[in-house]
Design goal:
By secondary structure, this protein is mostly helical. It contains 12 helices and no strands. Helix 6 packs parallel to helix 9.
């Protein structure tokens, strides 16, 4: 069986496309913006070169002057939305924020970006993030941890811990929201429908049942999730700081 070779839009030699005569009225930036709009509205399954071209009012063949295939579109779209992670870090250069502050900005930026663009969650692990925005964010965080006193592999592990916590906390929430959207039912309404089943199933687990009732009593579940995320992030950073002191 022939092994598939990975190629990336960032590593591909684009000289021929840059010198060739391109169709008038289109730009790669415009194509990427429309790709993100389509992904935000309808998800990854709806993305195709033909569908995108129709939204742009262009022929599908004209898109191939700018991107080779759908995979390249997704790579470009992923790095474009990653700018929403870079922006909270502040401008590079000058006096950098404290490592904890920068790590918090990164974590919240990543979480908020994925919640705004849930299709991004489906691409994690399928293709590497090696675009300029994702690499810029990674370098800022690595250098901040290095300046703080982390060294060697500890830098990798510490940065990885922040990223892993953020993804581990956010991806299940994205999956839940996506499921609610497919059911076309408000989350609160679905939870109310589920209440009876949980009450019966958890009769032998009073502690869990009490926690479920507390959860159902919350007026704004999204705020509860944000508080929970902050609690976990602060606890993680406290642990990293204690390790750094040691």
């Amino acid at each position: 069986m022939r092994q598939q070779r990975f190629t990336s839009v960032w590593a591909r030699d684009a000289a021929r496309r840059q010198t060739a005569r391109k169709p008038a009225g289109l730009s790669r930036e415009q194509i990427v913006r429309e790709t993100i709009a389509l992904l935000d509205a309808e998800g990854v399954d709806a993305l195709s070169m033909r569908r995108l071209a129709a939204r742009l009012g262009a022929a599908a063949t004209s898109l191939y002057w700018y991107v080779a295939n759908k995979d390249e579109l997704l790579e470009l779209a992923m790095d474009e939305v990653y700018a929403e992670v870079v922006e909270p870090l502040g401008p590079p250069g000058g006096e950098e924020p404290h490592w904890r502050d920068l790590a918090s900005r990164f974590a919240y930026g990543l979480r908020n970006m994925i919640l705004r663009h849930p299709w991004y969650a489906q691409q994690i692990g399928l293709r590497p993030s090696i675009g300029p925005n994702s690499l810029a964010a990674a370098e800022r965080i690595i250098l901040a941890f290095e300046r703080a006193g982390f060294a060697g592999r500890d830098i990798d592990h510490a940065v990885g811990a922040v990223a892993s916590y953020t993804l581990g906390s956010t991806l299940p929430e994205v999956a839940w929201r996506t499921g609610m959207a497919r059911l076309n039912i408000p989350e609160r309404e679905w939870s109310e429908q589920l209440r009876g089943e949980v009450e019966r199933s958890a009769e032998r687990f009073p502690a869990l049942l009490e926690k479920f009732r507390e959860w159902m009593a919350q007026e704004d579940i999204s705020v509860t999730r944000q508080v929970a995320f902050d609690f976990g992030l602060v606890s993680l950073l406290d642990g990293l700081e204690a390790r750094l002191r040691r």
